[in-house]
Amino acid sequence: MATGEAEVARVTAGAVADGEDPRLMSLRAAVERLWVDLSGYQAPLADREVAERELTGLLGLLDAGVPEDAPLSTALLRIAAAAGSVSALAPAVSQLREAVELFGVPRHRVLPHVRHGAS
Description:
The chain is mainly alpha-helical and 119 residues long. It has helices at 3-18, 22-40, 48-63, 69-83, 90-101. InterPro entries: DUF5955 (IPR045999).
């Protein structure tokens, strides 16, 4: 089990015991972890503001209850684009992706480019 999966499982188990929606608890834990990791990453990050804005938006969605798929997917894609190439942030971004997938948001796949008409 990957580190992010273990964290999601731990938070989910605690949320079930408290009677709260485990998906919300997992997403909140993932957002908070990425905030901490992003704050600790002191090197310049061109899209840091984008990632911070999206994390703030995710916290707002969580405060309103169970979020819809589209805003979750959009926030995840923007955060991944802003911070996904930084290896120090990759585990936290992965944990966020796993938490978003608990809401039924499908994983985006990039298909290889196929040239049509080429032999």
